[in-house]
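Ligand: alpha-D-galactopyranose. Inputs:
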Amino acid sequence: MYKVIAAVVLFFLLPMGAKGQKHVFDGPSRLYGQPGVQFMQRLVPWTGDSVVEVVGLPKGLRFDKERSCVAGCLQKEGDYSYVVRVAHGGRMLRDSVRLTISRQLQQPAPFMGWLSWNVVESEISTEVVRTVAEAMAASGLKRAGYRYLVVDDLWHADSRDTLTHSPLADKQKFPNGMEEAVAIAHAKGLRFGIYSDAADRTCAGRYGSYGYEKEDATQYAQWGVDLLKYDYCHAPTERDTALERYRRMGEALEATGRKMLYYMCEWGQRQPWLWGEQTGASCWRTTYDTRDGWTGKWGGVGVVQSIEGMRPLWPYSGVNRWNDADMLCIGIHGRGKSSSDLVEGRPGMTQDEYATQMALWCLWSSPLTLSFDLRKPISPDDIALMTNPELLALDQDLMGQQAQPLWERNGLILWVKPLENGDVALGLTNMNDTAARGTIKLDEIPYLDHGKHYHVRDVMHRFSQTPTRGEWRVALNRHQTAVYRLAEMAEDEVTGEEYRMQVREQRCRLKVEFKGAENAPKRIVVTDPYGRVLSEQRGSGQRFRLPLPKEEYVVRAVAQGRACCWSPEEKD
Ligand code: GLA
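Predicted complex:
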């Protein structure tokens, strides 16, 4: 009975004139979530007005007017809807939102994996799949959550089977067919992805799937494929045609009965964040191909261009509808193939720049697709960056909010990402070509209770800074990003004590003593005045000896801290 009344009320609330016109708010009207998981929709009316009210919210969700968002948690699976109302120019504009809560979502968190294109290109083969699968398992990448091994373009034979029209793999590269490659990946506990194109040819000129969607989807399912990356080279430009072509493949995949993740790749040219989910896809590329450089030229997408592409799109991302910023170039170090052209200067980035790429992708909740050469040894620095569990936890956060740029000052961008457990992640990116300093002020950050103390976790260095309710300064190298996770402090939590000291002698040894065993710290940490960790020691004793070069330091004894840790689910 309640449902009938709600449906009648909603019918009258729905806008007469709004059918087919732009939404009242900048963002999707088709959203997804999981039962028992916090949901959030940040509402940004394009009119610049504030949202007046949200009507028809199911029990469990509430409208937070101050933060302009719908938030809460629904326990039951099902389809829900509500209406957003905005007063504009003497009229009341309305928009309806449909929310599906399900345990069976195609992509509850952004997928993580490795794609063959950037360094392997045409050399793809069963042997490459075998080597890469082994390396993914042995290097810790799989354990960290990178589970999809995706064979990109150029796996194809010259043509499909002339009788059945089924797709065939290149016999030289895959002598025992694609089944064997899929089985190798599966045996290592990985999922297998494949590539095709919504036209008669792929980007690199092999046969495409247009007109053969059914044959291809059926064959992929029989091979045991788990993901399809579907490109858009050689296809008509209009959005309606793209929607129709992507939908055809989406329906063909669905019809196979096999669960396959559907990944659209039309490079953001037709704003797929507005319609992508109508095709059955759960993520879509937002830019042209990323390049292994800080700045791209003539259409090349360096980190700078990725930021330009992704920064306005935060209202459109969400659970099961991810904006994909394309392949990560971490670990390539200028030795890629297509990833090495169209960059300003020589290809390759500094480690700070690679770390910024990783940090931003995670703050944006982009799918994480590595693309470096897994046939060669991986450096410890690279692997640490790719597998930093606290950074990956931001990417995989189940509330699925893409970080919004809160401000840009003196070449620094501050990113804010609300998280499922109520914490808030911040990123500060230095876009300047020189080192720079900035200040983060908690009273500027939405989603926090201003006046309360917050634990401040340095996510990149995996270290807890002094809790604060005020502000702190950040020093950044050129193109570096600092990432923090803020967690509200319980009233009765003990804070660390802080000592600021100047070391005048060159490389002196610093002795720190604590009186009284009951005050003995659990941990002692030495940072520079900007919170960067220089040394960290654990111990229950009262004396610590730390060798330090000349500079100013902050020495902090940590009595109690709250760690944020994440370990991905092991399925095999
Ligand atoms: C396009 C895509 C790339 C890659 C190549 C393969 O350029 O955007 O990611 O798949 O095609 O040809």
